[in-house]
């Protein structure tokens, strides 16, 4: 039987070694493909940027990466729980920190490991690197040297200097403590705190708690030599001395009596079960030593069942993790050109993190931590690192605090727009969806979700109520929906926040099956069959509601096959003015959006179908504020092949040519020709399209669906859609892989009045 620890060890080593050593690489952000590019990137063009910076140093943020570049600097004297392992051995940790900067805040980062134990010399080296970086993150430098390094760097440098071991830990502890007090019903000014660990992180945490309102006289600091008291000479420094108590007490066991909060940043087993029992009612135990805390959570909970507990570990609730802080405090600081990270910015970070934990859990965080309870309370005091809202909320709060406290060299005029931009960097669809969301706010349309019991639908319904003016209607069993909302920590409840249709027992059942039978009575549907359909088929129920005017649009398809849903949508909602004529998917790629049609509706569309799809696509693409450039794609290229697909596409183009059109289209052509203007110009110099096509229409659904799925699975594309064209925005059928965010996007599309796009 394999040793789990050895398995984990090898997995970690393989992660660092393969497919190439390390966790970082450097990539160019500008093209360097020809002599013209070389002349701009280097000599002679580079001189122009140099001269602009010489004239005004602030231009460095315009013409170089400095404004988004952070240095993670260490000398390896206090690395994680490994101690003084040296600069070289610390490199994997610093590379990892750089990866987190990039992942969570899109900040570029160099890891710099310096073999210099002298704190003053180390500080001088860091200060000398100032021209390279927009900010400095000091990391894993032992105490008290870290205090010296940080002080010197702060005094000499005009960019933010932040020692994450101190202030990052303090910020996250502050946020967790703020919410723990909220849960316990206690106040900053009343609590007694006992802390173990007189290192940099411990001292910084205590200073932060004082800034938040704790009385310094109520803080009792212990270290390996016992209580820090007035007159103690052993292992003291000025930072510890600020928390010295005038008392005859000397040990942790003596001072823990009646403590409201235990803050451990020391080592394993420091706090005993008996000591937890001595604490005040509803004690708060932050046992943050890694990897083994001062007391294991199960022991603390056994001693006092209602204790509120946090650790530094990911396998227990309430992990105090600096990644909740440092990417976002640097993001906000860099974006306003802050000259330092001051107290106001740090407290803004505390408040932002704490506020987010009290909000409804995001669908993305829930998906990343499946099975974990994520409802605000004793076991959920701070948000999860993969909550994508952290960037927008925390970075914006930090930027605002920097501006209000006067340390922002480049103030941001519109913080709401700034937050939207940050959200767009995390939610890939946010920027493109903005015009759709704005349009959806103009009319409170009623959106019925056919699969109302689905967790994604429930999260989407919560988001619809928070972010739009739409009115969600859910089809499902009340008891199931109520229980799932409770389990997922959602605020919404049926009957209070949204209307509900219960297929098992709804007073409108007679009306619904009667309407369905009236529509389908000459298509083989008997009254008994109509009754059965209205008891079991939620898509048909939703379509009937739209038909009867009880809802404005239907969303369905979170499970099942697309054409099965399409059958019932077509049965009930097609009329002389509406019929499905194509499914359009917007694929959001690294370099922008690309629309694909028809992915689902018509397997082998006729020329008339293809022309209709193009016209519908043009209307829908404009909903996103994008001018459509439509390419008809085939193996054939501008008439060079006579196969069926080329013939049908050429015939479709002829149909479009027969009348004036207000959109650009061209074809038939290969995909690379559609996307490469230079290639297209060589093949057909007088073609009517400029630039790359942004809509690709295919001659059959297999090709369209295949391209869509390849872009999604291998190209990193994020899908918005499929958008069902031709139904007057009265129904949309999503795919089973859709996320809660995807459903919110589709609800916004469904919530747009038809008049806004024709």
From TrEMBL:
UniProt keyword terms in alphabetical order: Multifunctional enzyme, Oxidoreductase
Transmembrane segments: none
Segments forming domain Malic enzyme N-terminal: 21-154
Classification via CDD domains: NAD_bind_2_malic_enz
Domain Malic enzyme NAD-binding: residue ranges: 166-403
Family indicated by similarity: In the C-terminal section; belongs to the phosphate acetyltransferase and butyryltransferase family. In the N-terminal section; belongs to the malic enzymes family.
Designated name of the protein: NADP-dependent malic enzyme
Organism of origin: Roseovarius aquimarinus
């Amino acid at each position: 039987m394999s040793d789990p620890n050895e398995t984990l060890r090898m997995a970690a080593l393989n992660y660092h070694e393969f497919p190439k050593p390390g966790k970082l690489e450097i990539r160019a952000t500008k093209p360097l493909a020809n002599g013209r590019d070389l002349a701009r990137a280097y000599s002679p063009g580079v001189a122009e940027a140099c001269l602009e910076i010489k004239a005004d140093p602030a231009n460095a943020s315009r013409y170089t990466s400095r404004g988004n570049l952070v240095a993670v600097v260490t000398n390896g004297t206090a690395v994680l729980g490994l101690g003084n392992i040296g600069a070289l051995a610390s490199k994997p940790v610093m590379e990892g920190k750089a990866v987190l900067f990039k992942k969570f805040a899109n900040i570029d980062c160099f890891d710099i490991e310096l073999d210099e134990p002298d704190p003053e010399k180390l500080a001088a080296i860091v200060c000398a690197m100032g021209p390279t970086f927009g900010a400095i993150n000091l990391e894993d430098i032992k105490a008290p040297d870290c205090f010296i390094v940080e002080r010197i760097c702060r005094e000499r440098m005009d960019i933010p200097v932040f020692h994450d071991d101190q202030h990052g830990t303090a910020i996250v502890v502050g946020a967790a403590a703020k919410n723990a007090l909220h849960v316990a019903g206690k106040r900053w000014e009343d609590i007694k705190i006992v802390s173990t660990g007189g290192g940099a992180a411990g001292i910084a945490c205590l200073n932060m708690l004082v800034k938040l309102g704790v009385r310094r006289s109520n803080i009792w600091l212990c270290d390996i030599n016992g209580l820090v008291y007035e007159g103690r000479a052993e292992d003291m420094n000025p930072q510890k001395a600020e928390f010295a108590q005038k008392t005859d007490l000397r040990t942790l066991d003596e001072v823990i009596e009646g403590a409201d909060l235990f803050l451990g940043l020391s080592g394993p087993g420091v706090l005993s079960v008996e000591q937890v029992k001595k604490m005040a009612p509803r004690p708060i135990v932050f046992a943050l030593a890694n990897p083994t805390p001062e007391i294991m959570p199960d022991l603390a909970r056994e001693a006092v069942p209602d204790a509120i507990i946090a650790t530094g570990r990911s396998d227990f609730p309430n992990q105090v993790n600096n990644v909740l802080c440092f990417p976002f405090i640097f993001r906000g600081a860099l974006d306003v050109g802050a000259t330092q990270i001051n107290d106001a910015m740090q407290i803004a970070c505390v408040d932002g993190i704490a506020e987010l934990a009290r909000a409804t859990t995001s669908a993305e965080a829930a998906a990343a931590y499946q099975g974990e309870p994520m409802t605000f309370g004793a076991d959920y005091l701070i948000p999860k690192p993969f909550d994508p809202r952290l960037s927008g909320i925390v970075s914006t709060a930090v930027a605002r605090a920097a501006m209000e406290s006067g340390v922002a060299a480049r103030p941001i005029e519109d913080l709401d727009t700034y937050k939207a931009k940050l959200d767009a960097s995390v939610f890939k669809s946010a920027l493109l969806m903005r015009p759709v969301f704005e349009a959806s706010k103009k009319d409170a349309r009623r959106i019925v979700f056919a699969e109302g019991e689905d967790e994604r639908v429930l999260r989407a319904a919560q988001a619809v109520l928070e972010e739009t003016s739409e009115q969600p209607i859910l089809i499902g069993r009340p008891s199931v929906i109520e229980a799932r909302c409770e389990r997922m920590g959602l605020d919404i409840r049926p009957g209070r926040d949204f209307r509900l249709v219960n297929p098992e027992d709804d007073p409108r059942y007679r009306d619904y099956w009667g309407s369905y039978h009236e529509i389908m009575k000459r298509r083989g549907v008997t009254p008994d069959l109509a009754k059965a359909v209205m008891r079991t088929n939620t898509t048909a129920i939703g379509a009937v509601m739209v038909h009867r005017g009880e809802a404005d649009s239907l969303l369905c398809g979170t499970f099942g096959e697309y054409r099965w849903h399409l059958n019932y949508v077509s049965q009930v909602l097609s009329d002389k003015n509406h019929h499905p004529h194509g499914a359009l998917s917007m694929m959001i790629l690294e370099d922008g959006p690309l629309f694909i049609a028809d992915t689902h509706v018509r397997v082998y569309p006729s020329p008339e179908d293809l022309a209709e799809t193009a016209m519908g696509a043009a209307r829908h693409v404009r909903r996103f504020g994008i001018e459509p450039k439509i390419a008809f794609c085939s193996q054939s290229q501008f008439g060079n092949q006579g196969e069926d697909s080329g013939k049908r596409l050429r015939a479709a183009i002829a149909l479009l040519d027969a009348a004036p059109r207000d959109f650009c289209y061209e074809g038939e052509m290969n995909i690379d020709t559609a996307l490469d203007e230079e290639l297209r110009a060589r093949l057909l110099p007088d073609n009517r399209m400029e630039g790359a096509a942004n809509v690709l229409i295919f001659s059959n659904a297999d090709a369209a669906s295949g391209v869509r799925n390849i872009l999604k699975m291998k190209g990193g594309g994020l899908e918005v859609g499929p958008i069902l064209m031709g139904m007057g925005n009265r129904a949309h059928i999503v795919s089973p892989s859709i996320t809660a965010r995807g459903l919110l996007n589709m609800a916004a599309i469904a919530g747009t009045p038809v008049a806004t796009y024709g």
